[in-house]
Amino acid sequence: MTRQEQVNVHPSAASPWVISTRELGRRPGNMRTYQRTLQAPAGFGLDVIGIPENAPVTVDLRFESASEGVFVSGTAAAGVVGECARCLDPIEYPETVQLGELFAYPDTATEATTDADEISRIVDDYIDTEPMIRDAVLLALPLAPLCQEDCRGLCPECGERWAELSADHSHDTMDPRWAALRDRLTSAPDADAATGADERR
Question: Distance (Å, rounded) from C-alpha 56 to C-alpha 38?
């Protein structure tokens, strides 16, 4: 589901990612903190790297009431897994992303003058933090993850990792234009032997 589609969905109070702002009130300056460990939904990653579905995500959030909405800041931390874009070895490391986003109150100037995909909304006093955290995670992930910065990848001939091969590793290659001549010369002795045998008869 895209961010545009998500902002148009009414947040479910049953979702652990959805937090009520009723205790906060609409008085500027009020603040609440929330610490939770949640299970990652599907989509917290790219094709080759991301947070696995149902993996724990630890969120530490700060909700601050302002005149136009609630500013949510804090961090989300989880383990990222994937594979190296060069050698295909597995990759695993911890990732912590910084969060910061304003959620607009209904019937405010901010809500009236912005599109839903520009600034998120508070719907019936609820804030859905999942889209905000997903976006931060996706922005933090590398498009071409590497097991190490100087990874040389795989040998294109045998498919073995360069890091595990000897320094003089190489493969004999021949221009395909000479391949037919090589095959002809290789089979020539057999043909000559057969011809000699016929002549002796």
Answer: 6
| Cα gap 98→137, rounded to integer Å | 9
Band (pLDDT 50/70/90 cuts) for residue 164 is: low
Question: Would residue 153 be called left, alpha or beta, if left means φ above 0 and alpha means ψ between -120 and 50 degrees?
Answer: left
Quick: pLDDT tens for 87-119.
Answer: 888 999 999 999 999 999 988 888 888 887 788
Cα separations (Å) of 172 from 134, 157, 175, 187? 49, 10, 10, 20
What is each CA distance from 65 to 68, 92, 100, 127, 157, in whole angstroms? 8, 37, 13, 12, 61
The model's pLDDT over 141-161, given as tens digits with 9 standing for 90+, comes to 999 999 888 887 666 666 566
Q: How far is CA 130 from the centre of its chain?
A: 16
